[in-house]
Write a structure and sequence with these properties.
Number of strands: 10
Structural class: alpha+beta
Strand content: 5-15%
Number of domains: 3
Order of helices and strands: HHHHHHEEEEEEEEEEHH
Helix content: 40-55%
């Protein structure tokens, strides 16, 4: 690919504008990815259409930025509202593409284009994680492969001309990025894998087929269970379990439960019991059922413990992909920057009472912000970062 020396005759900021326009066009496609990837839909077919009425959007109503403003955020056919996210993603993508050119355009057109590729993946990952608390494997695992291959063909990603050093940096970046976050996720799960959900004494709780329901909210199981080993644990003063049909418990044992009250819709009752619910098993004292056989469980609870995921495997794979592109030194910088940013934002939201301290916070957007900081000059701040860490830690190691 030709480098910027071949474009010296063209004004530098002509390319800044070009990158912005190109970024806005790409941002329109990224909006499609953000909507369709978490839903398992094809990102190419069918062509762009209104999600409300399925109206096929013609090209003249699919112009980035302009169309959303012109239609005042509504579908031209059914007038249903179109989220402002579409405008934001297009503007953000265009701005970051232009910024990538401003930062590295003087050094390498190739590097600027690779940065644009990474920026697109960061934007899609961040918006999906914010909405769905997941980062698709097509981005994370695909990113690991693409980053490793590009490191082979374009060593300048790692600011070197050495193929051997570039491949070494990419490989170590994958190992260090994925390894550190995986260790944090496992240790965090052991230390903070459960939290006590605040309830009033003998508050009525329902375990339905799809969600845990309290008087104040309904929590889908998809937001509770992240691993097969996760458990909801409840201490209850009274329990009534209703089955869909009439199978007997898997492991009958001595219990104070009553017999089924109706063959068509059998139910069991306990005066006091300990309930454990996992994705594959419901246990009341010593009796167990397959959750798919249970219609609902109604109980008066005085203690409710829910599983908590400190960090998902999507973040682990995401960090490994970032490491594949930028190497292990970038991983250290990005982890430091993302942790600092995440802590500041999280504590601010808690202080403003906009967020519970124990609530889930998507980490992907902070990793993306840390990566952007690295791409836009963090490699220059890297020595200063380690000097700062050394100054902080040195007093603890002095004799």
């Amino acid at each position: 690919m030709p480098d910027t020396e071949y474009f010296d005759a063209i004004p530098f900021h002509f390319w800044t504008v070009t990158f912005f326009i190109f970024g806005c066009i790409v941002g329109s496609f990224l909006n499609v990815c953000i909507y369709r990837l978490p839903r398992g839909e094809n990102i190419i077919f069918p062509p762009s259409h209104c999600p409300h009425c399925n109206y096929h959007i013609p090209w003249y109503l699919n112009i980035p930025l302009f169309t959303w403003v012109f239609l005042r955020g509504r579908c031209a056919h059914c007038r249903a509202p179109i989220t402002v996210r579409y405008f934001i993603v297009e503007l953000l993508t265009g701005s970051l593409f232009a910024l990538s050119w401003l930062c590295v355009g003087n050094s390498s057109l190739t590097l600027a284009l690779i940065y644009c590729l990474v920026i697109g993946a960061l934007i899609v990952s961040s918006f999906i994680d914010l909405e769905h608390f997941v980062i698709p494997d097509s981005i994370t695992l695909g990113g690991i492969g693409v980053g490793f291959v590009l490191s082979f063909f374009f060593p300048q990603i790692h600011w070197t001309d050495s193929l051997k050093l570039s491949m070494q940096e990419s490989f170590l970046g994958i190992l260090v990025g994925g390894g550190i976050l995986y260790a944090i996720s496992r240790l965090g799960k052991l230390a903070f894998g459960r939290y006590r959900y605040k309830i009033k004494a003998d508050e009525k709780i329902i375990l339905s087929e799809e969600a845990l329901e309290t008087p104040s909210e309904k929590i889908p199981y998809s937001e509770i269970f992240y691993r097969p080993t996760d458990r909801i644990i409840i201490q209850a003063a009274s329990v009534e379990l209703t089955l869909i049909n009439a199978p007997q418990p898997q492991e009958p044992a001595d219990t104070e439960a009553t017999e089924p009250t109706s063959p068509a819709s059998p139910s069991y009752q306990w005066e006091s019991a300990r309930i454990e619910l996992s994705p594959t098993q419901l246990k009341v004292d010593s009796q167990t059922w397959d959750p798919s056989e249970v219609r609902k469980v109604e109980l008066n609870a005085h203690k409710l413990t829910l599983p908590r995921e400190v960090m998902g495997l999507g973040d682990v794979k995401f960090m490994a992909a970032i490491g594949a592109f930028f190497g292990w030194k970038a991983v250290i910088f990005i982890l430091f920057a993302s942790s600092l940013l995440g802590s500041l934002v999280g504590l601010t939201l808690v202080a403003l009472r906009k967020h519970e301290l124990s609530a889930r916070i998507p980490y992907g957007p902070y990793l993306a912000l840390g990566t952007l900081l690295w791409m836009m000059g963090g490699y220059y701040w890297y020595p200063s970062l380690f000097e700062l860490v050394n100054q902080i830690l040195s007093p603890f190691f002095q004799s």
